[in-house]
Amino acid sequence: MLSAPECLWLCLAALILSASAEGEPGSRIKVVVLEGSDAVLPCSLSTKEKTEQKLFNWKKVDPNKQEVFRYDGGNHYNDGQDEHFRGRVSHFPLELQSGNASIIIKNTLVPDSGNYTCDLFLQKKQAFSIELVVGAAPKPLIHVLKITEDEARLKCEVRGAFPKPKVEWRDGDGNILPAEEPQVSHTGERYNITLLTTVTRTNSSLFHCVATQEEIGHVTEDKLYVAFSGAALKPFVGILNITEYRVQLRCEVRGASPKPRVEWRDSHGNILPAEQPQVSHRDGRYDITLLTTVTRTNTNIFHCVATQEEISHVTEEEIHVPDQLFESCDGVGVIVSVFASGFSVTVFASLLLFSACIKCC
Ligand SMILES: *[C@@H]1O[C@H](CO)[C@@H](O)[C@H](O)[C@H]1NC(C)=O
Ligand SMILES: *[C@@H]1O[C@H](CO)[C@@H](O)[C@H](O)[C@H]1NC(C)=O
Ligand SMILES: *[C@@H]1O[C@H](CO)[C@@H](O)[C@H](O)[C@H]1NC(C)=O
Ligand SMILES: *[C@@H]1O[C@H](CO)[C@@H](O)[C@H](O)[C@H]1NC(C)=O
Ligand SMILES: *[C@@H]1O[C@H](CO)[C@@H](O)[C@H](O)[C@H]1NC(C)=O
């Protein structure tokens, strides 16, 4: 599916292309494509005079009139063709009978951008000029650098864009937010732009970073819901199931933003193998449940750790699994208390233990 801005862009491109199909000698035509797609550079006679037996010659003006494609009465030459275009350019043989000497450049690259000339040699030479703009429109990426109770420092990065985009921070209603001076660097034609802003708590905590490239009619954005008191609360841990010599543990992190990484660790801090985390989110906040199955260790203490790197926040909870639970079911005669922080965990674990025993004893 295309997003709205992409559709808009396609429409604009189609308009530009349809306008250009009527190119007249001497007129200037602009063709806009996105990097990686194919570009048709139009060059045709309005008289529809046959060009099969004629000569036409495509060149790129900058930097030094490179040979792009050359056709001479049935043959096309690759001899003089510039290295950069090798294997990527072809013409439309069937169109020649209606005076159409257009070419197609496959798999366009940003450096293909520039002015091209198409010289058609009939009774006299006719010259066409076409400007090709190959845009690279990467999506901006938002990072949360720091977040407090009511203030967040946000970074928006656009990397490898061409032409140079205008980058803006906007709030949920589309108003432009004050931001710092953008940091702009470029490698060849491609621009990297970083834009920092500090936002405060508002009722709508949805922020957008919008990159606009007017020359190619392209708009792309990233958005982020900032949950101001979103640092993950202590995980909630408990015993989920008891089978012979193994105990299944559950860890739940609720309402965290940004999305935390959740891990089970043993008392030495080693990460324990766990099941695929179950992740759900609403309004930019995440609920994550992580299950693991443990066997007896010398401490029987296990930690669930939630890490939010973007906001340098780590929180954890531990659970002590009583040694008896690792015995085969026959050995579990009495309900022992399960240490975990929080009364409900203990009750929950005891109940489970109880039901496990009823089931298998
Ligand atoms: C010339 O041929 C190309 C490729 O088939 C086509 O896209 C274009 O519309 C043609 N131009 C005209 C004026 O017919
Ligand atoms: C192409 O030619 C036009 C008109 O001369 C000029 O304005 C434009 O900057 C040129 N484009 C490039 C990429 O050199
Ligand atoms: C721009 O970003 C790209 C991709 O991360 C990186 O490789 C390149 O070095 C950056 N260029 C500049 C000039 O910072
Ligand atoms: C949030 O909304 C409430 C009620 O609509 C309003 O009274 C309050 O001023 C708003 N706060 C901000 C920071 O916009
Ligand atoms: C506990 O584990 C046993 C054996 O793997 C399984 O049959 C049972 O359904 C599990 N009970 C719960 C509540 O997950």
Describe the structure.
By secondary structure, the chain is mainly beta. It folds into three domains: 4-135, Immunoglobulin-like, CATH 2.60.40; 141-225, Immunoglobulin-like (Sandwich); 236-360, Immunoglobulin-like, CATH 2.60.40. It is built from two helices and 24 strands. The chain has a six-stranded mixed β-sheet with strand order 1-9-8-3-4-5. It has a four-stranded antiparallel β-sheet with strand order 10-11-14-13, with no helix packed on it. The two termini are 56 Å apart. The structure holds 2-acetamido-2-deoxy-beta-D-glucopyranose (5 copies). The site of one 2-acetamido-2-deoxy-beta-D-glucopyranose has 2 residues, from β17.
Averaged pLDDT: 81
Globular, elongated, flat, extended or rod-shaped: what is the shape? Answer: elongated
Rounded to an integer in angstroms, the radius of gyration calculated over CA atoms is: 32 Å
What profile does the largest beta sheet have? 6 strands, mixed
> CATH top level of the largest domain?
Mainly Beta
| Uncertain stretches of 5 or more adjacent residues | 1-23, 330-361
Helical content class: under 10%
Biggest sheet, spatial arrangement of strands: 1-9-8-3-4-5
> Helical region count?
2
Ligand types = 2-acetamido-2-deoxy-beta-D-glucopyranose
Transmembrane segments: 332-358
Domain Ig-like: 25-129, 140-225, 247-320
Signal peptide: 1-23
Protein name: Ig-like domain-containing protein
List keywords for this structure.
361 residues; mainly beta; Immunoglobulin-like; six-stranded mixed beta sheet; four-stranded antiparallel beta sheet; 2 helices; 46% strand; disordered C terminus; binds 2-acetamido-2-deoxy-beta-D-glucopyranose
